[in-house]
Design a protein that fits this description.
CATH class of one domain: Alpha Beta
Largest sheet: 7 strands, mixed
Distance between the termini: 94 Å
Helix content: 40-55%
Strand content: 5-15%
Structural class: alpha+beta
Radius of gyration: 29 Å
Number of strands: 15
Strand order of the largest sheet: 3-4-5-2-1-8-9
Number of helices: 24
CATH superfamily of one domain: Beta Polymerase, domain 2
Amino acid sequence: MSTLAPEFVSKDIFRIVSEVASKRGVKAFTIGGYVRDCFLGRHCSDIDIVVEGSGIEFARAVGEVTHSKVSYFKNFGTAMLRFKGDEIEFVGARKESYRRESRKPIVEDGTLRDDQLRRDFTINAMALSLNEDSFGELVDPFGGIRDLAEGIIRTPLEPDTTYSDDPLRMLRAVRFAAKLSTPDLQFRIVPESIESMRRMAPRMSILSRERIAEELNKMLVCPRPSIAFRLLDEAGLLPSILPQLSALKGVETVDGRGHKDNFAHTLAVLDNVAATDGPEPKLWLRWAALLHDIGKASVKRYVPETGWTFHGHDLVGSRMVPGIFNSLKLPLDAMKYVKKLVWLHMRPIALVDEEVTDSAVRRLLFDAGDDIDDLMTLCHADITSKNPEKVRRIHANFELVKQKLVEVEAKDAIRNFKNPITGDYIMELFGIEPCNTIGQLKEYVKEAILEGEIGNNFEEADALMRKKAAELGLVEKCK
């Protein structure tokens, strides 16, 4: 065993745990993510404490010393308290066994080694002793510190055993490889683990869609989410999770003319979007980037005169979004947002290629609403050409479109468009009941505003509506 730098175990909570362990005559360790992140120099405020004994009783004793409220989760045999900004979870060391039809383990009391054996990866199985005679020493029976230094994701047991017992660990392996990778050190899953994932892929069927979605969300907010989706593909897991994305893979060639690999392009767009985020990743914008081209596989056509086309993929893709979100049980409001961006992602590009008219900009603002800024971010990210001059030209044109958006919005207030003419007003004015004519009049006014024929104000809208109503034979109610 080797001793860590003092600052890794200098938190007051560790000394308190050590004193409580000594008084109670039990062994206590901090284990898992906190230890891993200490070595990586990453901040971590989630601390897991394992004791050889009852984790719940131990947490109660620590709570008395720290005067902290302890939350108990008896079904899981765990307890949690907060102390000086950290969240500390306590559990008794345990060993686990699994039935093939379930990822819920049969749990028995165990030793620290038993507990380390049940961990998913060697880098998450490292423990620091909090016992008085070995305080701060590393307990690392599987070489996690070596794997961490080399950027390796490896299981403590044979990977078939680890992944068959709990197939969610396959997704966690992918997620950790993406989460922990840096420009200086790319984490990788060992080949035997990748091969095991391919064999164990059918075991994914026992996972709930909610747990799969949770892991996908965590992958998407990684600094370079493309790492995760390339690994999902390499490990043979992508077809069972997002077959629509997997269908984008490959390049087809006819008469010596090929198209770009839409899967690779999608991952480049995803990373481009991720690079634009501020302090908080925009999860649903990243989902939109991931799904923006999913319609291409079903609309791909080869036309001898023009080559490969993907006409209508934006509309087809937007119609696929609800099925994907429903299958993963993702939220409805997020689904509507992603569907909108997938549907609209070609519109700003069309404006770049054509004359930027006020009418076209009004319609884009009307359809995008408050999501216009995110839409423009997605469209910028969608430019992945290897031709620097082409990229420079398109981005410069995008700036002109953005300027036009600002000008039109300032003049016409279309972003959150509300028709100046309401159905209630029409019914009151002409003394009529709800009917199709009301919708016809409102649509006529809306189109006139979007085309710039009248201003976005009640006076002009009312005058136009009355003129159209007269053409339809409506007579104003006598006052």
